[in-house]
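Q: Two folds, back to back.
A: First:
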Amino acid sequence: MITTVAVVQIPPVLLDRGKTLERVVDAIETAAERGASLVVFPEAYVAGYPTWIWRLRPGGDGALSGEIHARFRQSAVDLNADGLLPIREAAARHGVTVVLGINELDSRFSGTTVFNTVVVIGPEGDILNRHRKMMPTNPERMVWGMGDATGLRVVDTPAGRVGALICWENYMPLARYALYAQGIDIHIAPTWDAGDSWLATMRHIAREGGCWVIGTATALQGSDMPADFPELSALYDPAEWVNDGDAVVVAPTGGVAAGPLRREKGILYAEIDTEAAHRARRSLDVAGHYSRPDIFSLEVHRSALQPVAFTDQEPAPSHSPVATPGPDAYRQAS
């Protein structure tokens, strides 16, 4: 089955959820007009990757960090309040599958922690999967909580079986294997990474997993930062490229099919054939005939981890006294 994919590399409106959602809708409409049935966005696209964490002093700049983080949290998406409704509606209106990176606010428990999340939205507007980044990298741990494996899943879409790992999760061999073992056709890697070493990783995963790989970061210049960003001139040069982007589509053989789109703000298009993934695994199927389950095994715990469980039901009344064991009950038999 041949599918047109669109890899979006247009900067979001950093720290502005509403305006960024409008850009997502516009990009979906543009991609759909070009015949795309799968539209992919970068890591933490709504409402922007927290690039400032790599520039502030670790353990310092506390007041500035707090001010920026407050805006970061306020611009995050609450899925429990249907915060992606405009995107779900756009996906259904155009009949496309959307893979979108978001900053997700946990409103069920603390109401404060933000997760680095990628969602897969089907062509009927349903959220087919939500995956939270399991291990934020270095200073990312100052802004994101650690996710679990609840969303470590591959889901069926009209474009093929789709799974996603976020940024350096793609360097976790067991996480990759967990997706390979679910019959993945299209491996999506929304990221903040770019450059030759990252492109080599994308090619390796395609060859290793025998699957299509789509990688995309946010092509971002200093001039794309909002004018009211705290200490803007001290942190960013308007002319600098904060991130090169490097959107890329890699075929299951490891060859680059489209891109990389470097230092260019736009949408990368490619045609992919999911049958090519199955053909690529004829000789090397790492989760099939090349797996050696008699030697190696992997167990993945996908149960949702919750910080608290409340029980409001009153205990049943007891109508008989509790028997207290006598001292002989604790003596070992001779």
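A: Second:
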Amino acid sequence: MGKFKSFWKDNWIGYLFLAPWMIGLVTLTAIPMGASLYFSFTNYDMFSAPTWIGLDNYTQLFSDEKWLESVRVTLIYVLIGVPLQLTFALFIATLLNKGISGLSLYRAIYYVPSLFGGSVAIAILWRQIFGGNGLINNLLSNIGIEGTNWISNPNTALYTLIVLMIWQFGASMVIFLAGLKQVPIELYESAKMDGASPWKQFSKITLPLITPVVFFNLVMGIIGAFQAFTPAYIVSGGTGGPLNSTLFYTLYLYQKGFTQFSMGYASAMAWFLLLAIAIATAIIFATSKKWVYYQG
């Protein structure tokens, strides 16, 4: 007891400053998550008391064709969008790392889309760009090509959102650029003396030494992609159309919870998404031992 009093006497100021965060963690995160877990085992519509139904919500997921379609669409978005975004971000970071003048300006310009990429305004702008009379079709008409309504075509709608995701490469690019700055220049000088080509220098020196940065960006990119919501909601008008081609998992979750008021089912969807993200992250961590290299 005396040790506890002494510890509290020495550290109470620190815990006082931590108190707002702790209160927020409990009231805004822990309690809602606990309630969501409970509701996932119930039939709950927010207007009447929840009724316990056990695992019915979870088993119903796999017989829900629309849920299965939302999983398929989200996986395509993640598996195509994340690698392309990281590749493009690394490409731009490599160019900026060449020591060009005005580096700070270019870095800021490329980072701007990441600040607004998830906003409603940018999603609306994207809908205008890829609409039937949008900027893309106007540019194509100038060279004699008749375009389509990209966001209304089920064959192209999802890929316009993937392009939007790639366009939001700024945050990853800045992190890649910081990692590139840490690669010892002596290694490049030695490689040049041995006659190594630029590609050899990149593949044998640059890429292995920045794999910890690639690892970080990959994990964060996958987590963010699985939770994408705003672009699909705005571009499709909240429907996930055309023909469910933009029905992201989070959008279908929103529809079940806040349109159909099936909050128990939506809670089960949310916990399944959390499990899926945890498994994907665990797989990346488990395989990182084979491809992530740390200096020293």
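Q: And?
A: The first helix runs from residue 2 to 39.
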